[in-house]
Specification:
By secondary structure, the protein is an alpha+beta fold. The chain is built from 18 helices and 52 strands.
Length: 1048
Amino acid sequence: MRGARSQRIGLSEGGELRMARRILAVIVGLALLPVTLRAQYFGKNKVQYTHFHWQYLQTKHFDIYFTDGGKSLAEFVAKKAEQAYERMSQDFRYELVDRITIIVYRSHNDFEQTNVDLSPPEESVGGFTEFFKNRVVIPFEGEWEKFRHVTHHELTHAVSLQMMYGAGVMSIIMGMTRLQLPLWFVEGLAEYESRGWDTESDMFMRDATINGYVPQIPMLDGFMAYKGGQSVWAYIAEKYGDEKVGEIMGKVKISRSVERGLRQAIGLDERELSDRWQKYLKKRYWPDIAGRDEPEDLAKRLTNHTKDGSFVNLSPALNPKGDKIAYISDRTGYFDVYLMSAIDGKPLGRIVGGQRSGGLEELHWLRGRNLSWSPDGRYLVMSSKAGERDRLNIIDVERRKIVRTYSFDLDAIYNPAWSPDGDRICFTGVSRGRSDLYVYTISSGQLARLTDDVFSDVEPDWSPDGRWIAFASDRGDYVRPELLPPTFDIADHDFQNYDIYLVSASGDSLVRVTTGPYVERSPAFGPDGRRLAFISDRSGISNIYLKDLESGDEWAITNVLTSAFQPAWSRDGSRMVFTSFYNGGYDLYLLKNPNEIRPIDVPLTVFRKQVEERRQQQLAREQKRRREEDRLLRRRREELLRRYVFDDDFKNGVVRLPEEAKAQVFLDSTQFKLPTGEYKVHDYKVSFSPDIVYGEAAYSQYFGVLGEGQIMFSDVLGNHRIAVYTNLFYDYRNSDYELVYLYLPHRTDLGAGGYHHAYFFLDQWGSLIRDRNYGLDLYASYPFNRYERVDLGLTYFAVDREYLYELVPFPKIKRRAWMGGLSLVRDTSIWGYTGPVAGTRASLGVTVSPRLGPDQMRFVTVRGDYRRYLRLGQHYSFGLRLAGGVSEGDTPQRFFVGGVENWINYSFRGNLRVEDPDDIYFSTFETPLRGARYYEREGTRFVLANLEFRFPLIRYLVLGWPLPIGFQDIRGALFTDIGTAWSKNEPFRIFREEPEMGWIQLQDVLMGYGLGIRMNMGSFVFMLDIAWPTDLARSGSTRYYFSLGAEW
């Protein structure tokens, strides 16, 4: 018998432990199986609509990459990046040791195609910094101040990262293992460095303080990590001096601890700093309560984000009758267009849903007003991202569907406004680094450009007679082209200041309406065309102002605590609806008879008073500095004339100064500029550099060379990726190695790879088995849009099995398979902290393996998976999943039902199946089915259903011992799983009757129920499920499932 010849040679007791590790490695190794053997994976798509032609220019410290038509943007970034670095170098007391790469896209649509990071960025992502290669990736979104801010913000990440962790992949990896910086520290610093303090940040912190949702500093997360963190740094600079910013960073770097760094620099730890900061906020903002109004004090509240679970309700548009309001809301987790009554605020349902189809991928909710009614009140116009480009959508309000679309050769389209005659639509169009006003005539199909210059022109609104268009712009006094000096550079212009302007419908006349060093936006004409409503932050808070265009008088009609945005006036002038941010969310409010409101004297905020004081002080310092410079320049000239020899260079106006020694990585101006002063432009060429390099090696007299290594390479743009993995053990037959190449610059993503893995097992008789698994993979994925794609795979898969150290040799077992796979995937899901909370995920795939030779597998497998997530308020959701599959053929695949994915304390029904290679390499575990073990049911067919209610369990949890560690947003779940597997021609019954009690109970179907806890640990989700199996008649003993990974 087989047990008689299972004597093993050369295995020590330590070898038993290694075998256990190998068994665990098999489970992990299943994740490395070719795409044709894996269940269809989900995820939204990154679609490369455009094959970009890349070039780059250089500055002293930066390499700046740009696409066709983006040179002016790159030059703007070049100047602003060097200016930002000069300030950061002083603030941080640090100088770069390596160059930083900045990649610039002409629009957000182009930016969403980047391969520097493989996850598709959402509309709210304004840019990002990739840490390992220290690459900054940013889009131009039509406004220069926003572009400057995101450049400075992301560059702060890149510079501070190099300061804290050093340059180079391994330095960063090792540094991050020794020092983990909290999000408030990182994002708050980037916001503070790029903004200082501003009215928008002041608004958020005033609201958070007054409404009592400012957490302790260690608990700052989400959006509060940005604004709250910015406030912390601003407080430190104001209280302890600007120089403390750099000192804290230096101390944190040396001590490898934020806590110790704060203590050494300012004498406070995080908790003590938090207490003082919160006290400071209360003193700063609480006095505002007495002198200002809550939005609901002066207007009727129409939406309530705290009740419907939304964060955003904005872009209100009153219909011509003034009895309905269209607006954009995210109450379902998606941005949709809704309708409500302007009379009583009664919801009238959703008009169209966004973020679920290729035509409405994004609704541009961050870009200002995006809805406008037709004069007859039948239609709405809205811009959206629709694949490669933006488009205008004409929405039939009664039928609740899009009936027409208009697309143009523009990089972006924002802020559409329908003309009073119904034949024209004005909007902001972005093209090749310019943001101008365009007018589209519906009847003729003609597109006219109203403004054509370098300035940002946004948020147009038609006058009632259709002769004028009001808009906001950063152009200052430049209302005519001839006023621009020949050497004008937008990078030197004051583009932070926005004012209101009027342009004639023909585009031949442009007039400035407001002046002053403030941000004034969102113009809206009154019904008679004489008065214009707009938003101004002149008091330090954005309020609604009216301007009489004939007399020139201006006055405020609101004095809110936090903000008022996007005013929309009814045609008869009796109503005005606006958006306000209050108590942590955006809501709509209705203001009655705005023309009858008496002018309000709006007091300045503390921040605005400080700005005005600093402005006067700065003006005085500037005048003094200029006088001093003139005096020193005269003295310097006299000294130079006494000391210099007048050579030909001097006579020709050239003074040559000695060059200082510089590091080779940095450049002087002669290396990156032409004699004319223009930047040298270079064509991009693919070159690889490491993303990750890891390795370790050893030598054993018995086993020889041992080693493990991972190397990942990519080009600057991430379009070409190479990954190499090795795990050397004794010789090539006992080692693992993989090589993968991904080609990503086009719409169809391509991949190819080869691999060899050696797995070792002990069978139930103690024999040592070695499986050599090797093969080749070809992969292609074609996305139809962000949500739907088709995946194709072709795999050659081989397994050679040997029994080692046997006295009687066993014949080798071989398995071969040529497998082709095709799957359709759809994913519109929205994720929470631990898994999807809304949307749909679905896949349907087929895998075919024909028999082309000896030892070949022959099967056809079809597998489907459908998942639906329903959001129930802001923090609750319900998940439903139904999956099933069938495999046919001479050697069909088998499905093992039971257990959970990545199960740490796993258990099997029986033992791990190692005797038959088919059970390891050509079968799949179908999970989760809690209450059951691995292999609980098996067969060539399976069905699995899951129901799960997900809810917040613990908001915050702070441990006092043994370590003061804090956790937040610990989630809970109640679940029921039911499923089974069976084979063809196998007896199968769903129910049977319990003979004693007469109850119906499950027979060949598994079912479990229970509760779970999920905790996001940063790089993974830790999950604990407590389950009870049941056959409907009785429940079994409790089972515990510890696992890693996100919820299904």
